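Proteins fold reproducibly. Take a sample protein:
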Amino acid sequence: MIYLDNAATGGFLPRPVLEAVAEALTHPANPGRSAHEASLSALARVTEARSALADAMGFYDPARVIFTKNCTEALNLAIFGTLRRGGHVISTVLEHNSVLRPLFELRRRGWITLSLAEPDQTGRVGVRQILPLLRPDTYLLAVTACSNVTGGGGELEELGGLCRARGLLFLVDGAQAAGHFPLRMQNWGIRLLALPGHKGLLGPQGTGALLFDDSVPLQPVSFGGTGTDSASVFQPSLPPEAFESGTLNLPGIAGWSAGLNFLKDNRAALKKRMTDLTAALDEGLRRIPGLTLFSVPNECGIFSFLLEGQTSSETADLLAREGICVRGGLHCAPKVHAFLRTSERGLVRASLSPFNTLNEVETFLKTLARIRTG
């Protein structure tokens, strides 16, 4: 099998990640709920993971690293937890439904108004696209760092400066970008950053996080046991406990911490591998007659295309029969397909990780060329 669906979930986990998950499953305990050694050891592993993630994202406060079950939950916490009824939100057509659905639900309820910016010809969204949409009641800008369809995204540093100047909350969806290029949270003025563990950050499935700075008036959206202030029937007010009700995914968090350490120790080699793979796939796809590429150059290994005379699902199914895993369809991102005018046929998406090989890329290209010619 050749796995080229890494934008959906990472297809390979380094051995230290597997070992950390196994160790946590072998010695389970509820982090911080008890005073015994196993519980305190579990808490130490969670604390280490918070610090590793804060460090990786250029963030100053590990206590404001909130663990969630995935990036979708982190985005929901960010959007519902900062809601200002009657306010105005700006986002983009590049967003995944993890951003669009919470925002459109709030709009349907009449709680917010919403505007969506379109990218420029390079696939990017910057100040030029956002300025015309600003209103006196705008309070939140929600932007993807890298579209899961086109590989384009927000000009984060530029947009962070705009949000600082206008007093806006700046939420970034780092689902595709994290691990592939730096997300400098403090330097770029990112006030809320949502992340998955299971893609470029080399963690297991079922892991995610929201990082938010101390200027964000974030409110909990779920309530329950936290292991602190147990005599009170009200939710604690301080992070991280205020936002982490119930038992954390200790095996997943321990594995994610190991993945972050692996990424830190091997960053240059992984970056070089990803650059080489991306260049080879880009060159090969552009040589196939009848193939139209819809993605823009990006560091996240995302390539979306159509073959002449085929729907994306037909192409993806033919590749699956050859043991090659890609994704066809709309990729949970309907607005970008409407913008690209690909809603009817969808797009085929091949997405790389640094653990793919040049031989796999070559085999994929040869198979695709054969499918194209019938």
